[in-house]
Amino acid sequence: MASDRPPDTPPEGAAREWLARERESEREWERARPEPRTPREEIEVSWFWVFVAIFGPLRLWVLPGLIGYWPSWIITAFVIWHGSWLWGRWWRKRKAAHSRPA
Asked: Which helix (H) or strand (E) holds 28?
């Protein structure tokens, strides 16, 4: 026989205190958890790394051999900036077109 108490009786003494501490620690953990990122934030972060992955090797291997090392930094920075600007413009237009009511 496991216990003389009915199953719906609340715990007593140390068990009650332990249960209260556990519940409070779970509430604290829930409050401390960071908010999840929105899909828009994920997209903005990930496209930066796409440009880095594409233009990084180009800057390091192709451009220095063609026109010298330091100008390649300037050209790469311009290409990444302008490409990301064009991409952002395209993305905003696409998002606006998809958000219009049918």
From this structure: helix 14-32
Task: Specify the pLDDT at position 95.
Answer: 85
| Residues 6+ away with beta carbon under 8 Å from 47 | 84, 87
| Cβ atoms of 85 and 99 closer than 8 Å | no
Please, what is the angle between helix 69-99 and helix 39-57, to 10°? 150
CA 69 to chain centre: 34
Q: Does residue 68 come out as left (phi exceeding 0), alpha (psi in the -120 to 50 range) or beta?
A: left
Neighbours of 59 (CB within 10 A): 19
pLDDT given for residue 29 in this prediction: 85
